Amino acid sequence: MLELNKKTNIEYFSRPRINALLEQATEKPLVLVCAGAGYGKTRAIADFVQKNNYTTIWIQCSDFDNVSTRFWENFVHTIMLIDQLLAKELKELGFPDTDDKMNRFYDAARRYMQENPALHWLYVMDDFHLVTNTDIISFVEHTINAWLKARTVILICRSLPIINILTLQAEGLVQYIVEKDLAFTETELAEYLRRQGLSIEPQILNKIFQDTNGWAFSINLIARSLKKSAGYMGYVNNAIKHNIFSLMESEIWNAISNRLKRFLLRLSLIEHLSAELITTLADKDDSLIAELQQQSAYIRYDSDIDAYLIHHLFKGFLRAKQELLTDEEKRKTYRAAAHWCIQNHYIVDALGYCEKVGDYESIVSISFELTFILPYDLALYMVEIFERVPAELFTEVDFLAAMHLRALISLGRWQESVILAENYEQTLQKLTEDSILRKHTLCLMYYFWGYLRLLRCTADHRYDFDIYFTKMNDFRTDPPIELGQMYVAQTGPWSSLVGSARAGAPQEFLNAALALSHYMNDFVGQPPSGSDNLIQGELLFYQGDVGTAETLFNSAFVRTQDCRQFEFAHRALFYTMRIAFVLGKYQTVEQVIKRLTALLDEKDYSLRFVTYDIALGWYYYLLRQPESVPNWLKEKFAPYSRLHLAENFGNQMKARYHYLIKDYQSLLTYLKR
Q: What sections of 310-375 are H helices per DSSP?
């Protein structure tokens, strides 16, 4: 692989005064570096971090980070540079968009800090003013308060962020660094020009200082100009700001080679410029990379994220010239960026670049790697992409229509989902019967449609979801579709989703669920998963026949071992533990706890920490030891959402915790909802 000279930075001028200022500032938990464009905010922090060798999480924000899934991908990737196990846990957690997830995030953070008590690190969010998503801003507010003693948070922005830090301000825990702090002093200006090989008379030096007011960006441009001509013609600071693109044209653009111009324009098309991607786009051309590095005042390498960053003023200048690129140059750039993003799991960016080149096959491929129910904002982003797809492609690209339906279901837009499914069903049925696309897409679409009906049965009390799994089976192919993470298993407090008091409703659900289990086991080519035993056992458990229920749960657990259905295994053990308590089989309880603990080693079980905490909470509830209940289960109730989701499973335990500590007001408030 091409080696990049990442240390090259011939134009950056390190200022001890700024480093000393930052050294003092980072004694406080929050530092706001707020100044206009071109004041050297990012470079100052980067120089400070490098000189002090701080462990640093650095997130370069953009407009795209207002999609919380994209923000979380960036966050997790930077955490991975510090601790891979913590990053894996946070990736499985997903963006903390609920109180429960935020509390679980706190728990993970606390555990990490307890395991690393001497660690002090910096968390830098650059261009934070571009973040307007209130959920992300709220997350940043919470994390600032959560890790006050373990790190310093530095927010770099062009204007004061809309963030609630009143308490921290009142306690004197916030340090501001503003334009007047970052502006060059006359002494620093003189030293900078001297290092550029320029000898300037004192009166001219003072004139430059008065004209620029120490604005770093204009000082650099003036130095470039002085290298060309000995005389200083005089600049007015405001004029420079208003005519910055003209100055870039004459001082930068006209001085570089044509091939670097085109390369820079290609780089301006994309957001994340990893060192690896830069090398790929340059076709491993050492000389082109070396020429790129000569523009170090405007393009810098950030070792914390292993990527190059283009100064936003310079990127704006380049974007204004993108029409100079050919369509093929744009497509080549987007294709390379999409491939890199897919390889490195930057899902949101990958989807966007694939759309730009019309690579809908790759969008489908990415979709197969995602869980069945998508995070809300990711689902919204994908639905917007699907709505822009030319209509004819839904009968030309395998699975594309099914993935559109799946994204719409994830948004909870039930009626629209049914209408969309019916429309696609009619369209796809018109294809020839031997069409593989017809078979594939209808098969997967009926799978999603069946789970849509399963999700809705708690509201409309119609237990007909098995009909769609029958249709799924009718269109299956050989080899069958690989569902991967799209395979759905129940994760909530109950296996039965019956929400009706109507006589016979539990049996109707049970019959439909048994058919579902049969078709799904056959479809994925696995032995029976034990879900049928679970549903039957649960019904008997609540009817009081705990002996028969226990036998069914034991059988279900054994059957889960063959097909690695961890959610079903957990549920079987969970009920077994509760029955053992009722029957006074305390040795069995201990054995169950050991088996539940063993599930924590199953890396493919994404909800293992959540379900384990809930089971542990029940264990300590039954022992009447509320102080030992996991912390996040002591917090306020999560808003009621879909019955089967883990948040409602957690609420079941929270209700018992509040009852145990006699917090009846909180409990009654929850029960009244």
A: 312-319, 327-343, 347-356, 360-368
Average pLDDT, the chain: 85
Q: Which residues 6+ apart lie within 8 Å of 319 measured at CB? A: 268
Specify whether the CB–CB gap between 371 and 485 falls below 8 A. yes
Residues of the chain with CATH 3.40.50.300: 16-182
The tokens describing 502, both together, are 């109507």
Q: Which residue has the tokens 């053992």?
A: 580
What's the pLDDT score for residue 641? 54
CB 200 within 8 A of CB 193: yes
H-type alpha helices, 475-585: 505-523, 531-543, 546-563, 566-583
Interval 417-443 mean pLDDT = 95
Could you tell me if 153 and 86 are in contact, meaning their C-beta atoms sit under 8 angstroms apart? no
Across the beta sheet with 174-177, the strand order is 55-60, 121-126, 151-157, 30-34, 174-177
Over 225-243, what HEC string results? HHHHCCCCCCCCHHHHHHC
Q: How confident is the model at residue 5 (pLDDT cuts 50, 70, 90)?
A: very low
Amino acid letter, residue 84: Q
- The DSSP bridge partners found for residue 156 are 33
Please check whether residue 431 is in contact with residue 438, taking contact to mean a CB–CB distance below 8 angstroms: yes
Report in angstroms the alpha-carbon separations of 515 from 463, 487, 643, 653: 11, 16, 21, 31
Q: What is the pLDDT of residue 145?
A: 73
Helix (H) or strand (E) holding 151: strand 151-157
Which run of H or E residues covers position 58? Answer: strand 55-60
Residues 414, 432: Cα–Cα separation, whole Å: 29
Condensed to tens digits (0 to 9), the pLDDT of residues 435-463 reads 999 999 999 999 999 989 988 888 888 98
Element (H, E) at 302: strand 299-302
How far is 445 from 216, CA to CA, in rounded Å?
A: 57
pLDDT surpasses 80 at 235 = no
> How far apart (Å, rounded) are the C-alpha atoms in residues 475 and 21?
68
Site of tokens 């919380």: 68
Main-chain phi, psi angles of 253, to 5 degrees:
-60, -45
Give the Cα separation of 42 and 62 in Å (integer).
Answer: 14
pLDDT, residue 470, reads: 92
pLDDT of residue 384: 96
Q: Which residue has the higher pLDDT, 321 or 666?
A: 321
Instruction: For residues 618-634, give the mean pLDDT.
Output: 89
Q: Coil, helix or strand for 60?
A: strand
With tokens 């320029």, the residue in question is 198
Nearest of 608, 612, 620, 621 to residue 565 by alpha carbon: 608
Spatial neighbors of 359 by CB under 8 A, at least 6 apart, are 335, 338
Contact 610, 646 (CB under 8 A): yes
The domain 16-182: what is its CATH number? 3.40.50.300
Name the 3-class secondary structure at 59.
strand
Interacting residues of 333 by C-beta distance below 8 A, sequence separation 6+: 266, 269, 270, 281
Q: Answer left, alpha or beta for residue 565, where phi above 0 means left and psi between -120 and 50 means alpha.
A: beta
Please give the single-letter amino acid code of residue 282: A
Q: Which residues pair with 154 in a beta bridge?
A: 31, 124
Q: What are phi and psi of 403, to 5 degrees?
A: -70, -30
Paired sense of beta strands 30-34 and 151-157, if any: parallel
Q: What are phi and psi of 602, to 5 degrees?
A: -85, 100
Extract the tokens encoding 396: 């030309």
Bridge partner residues of 274 (DSSP): 307
The span from the CA of 288 to the CA of 296, in Å, is 14
